[in-house]
Specification:
Number of strands: 8
Largest sheet: 8 strands, parallel
Helix content: 40-55%
CATH class: Alpha Beta
Number of domains: 1
CATH topology: TIM Barrel
Strand content: 15-25%
CATH architecture: Alpha-Beta Barrel
Distance between the termini: 13 Å
Number of helices: 10
Strand order of the largest sheet: 1-2-3-4-5-6-7-8
Shape: globular
């Protein structure tokens, strides 16, 4: 079985000491491809270079949590970098992301977030690229932006909204990303949503090094060593997939077939690469 981790921050500082070993371990676990999204201009090159080094894929964008330190000129840098990579035929560039809105972090300026979100949607639309959306307490506002500035679909990452919101994303050509959050017994609402969704809407992700699954937190608690030991990594995609398969009542093989095909459908440039 082959798996695609549709959202993995493999460039993160948490992987500084063992990044390539982590990727090799994930490959041995069947993760044939990872999608590595950027979060700000300063890590565009690192994300791009890493994706090429590990034969993975990447997206470039300005994350809502980084808009406070961004400059309007960063949008020009993003536009220019995307345009250049497309002109060079870089098939490892698959989307604009991670972009979106965050309604949970209180100190973030909503108007600034919206400014960067809409500007990046316009760039994605002009370049005919899908987007990777950060969706945290912001689904309705994201959907409103997409109705104003339609794009070529993409992934609503770490989705926790309602079925009605999910349906609207699906109608716009989006898949919904699920990862370690579904492994927690208390995530009843999220599990009900996942069970109700069609297989054509589901993609798997780890959001490494974040959103670690339940068993990683249990191990960290047993070691009494805190969050640093709760690092998530892309090799966890397979046990996460088992949880998702159990919730959906399908085999791992069926889930692998659908989730992999779904990622390739929303990121069609993957089909142009031999390592996808």
């Amino acid at each position: 079985m082959n798996w695609i981790d549709s959202h993995c921050h493999l460039d993160a500082l948490e992987f500084e000491r063992d990044r390539l070993q982590v990727r090799d371990a994930a490959r041995q676990a069947g993760v044939v491809s990872c999608v590595i999204p950027a979060v700000e201009v300063s890590n565009f090159k690192a994300v791009r270079d890493l994706a090429h080094q590990t034969h993975d894929f990447y997206a470039l964008g300005i994350h809502p949590l980084y808009t406070a330190q961004a400059h309007e000129s960063d949008l020009d840098v993003l536009d220019a970098e995307l345009t250049q990579r497309i002109a060079l035929g870089d098939t490892r560039l698959v989307a604009v992301g991670e972009i979106g809105l965050d309604g949970w972090v209180e100190h973030l300026n909503w108007d600034t977030q919206m400014q960067y979100y809409k500007a990046q949607l316009k760039i994605a639309r002009r370049l005919s690229l899908p987007v990777i959306l950060h969706v945290r307490q912001s689904a309705d506002e994201l959907l409103k932006g997409l109705r104003q500035i339609p794009v070529n679909g993409g992934i609503a990452h770490a989705f926790t909204g309602s079925f009605q919101q999910a349906q609207q994303f699906m109608d716009m050509g989006f898949c919904l990303g699920f990862g370690g959050a579904v492994s927690f017994d208390r995530a009843l609402r999220l599990r009900r949503l996942l069970k109700a969704l069609p297989m054509s809407a589901i993609v798997l992700e780890t959001d490494s090094p974040d959103i670690a699954p339940k068993w990683i937190y249990v191990q960290a608690h047993e070691r009494a060593s805190g969050r640093l030991q709760a690092r998530n990594d892309p090799s966890q995609l397979l046990p996460i997939a088992q949880v998702v398969a159990d919730i959906k009542g399908v085999s791992l093989e069926e889930l692998s077939t659908h989730s992999t095909a779904n990622v390739r459908r929303v990121f069609p440039k993957m089909l142009l690469s031999k390592s996808a």
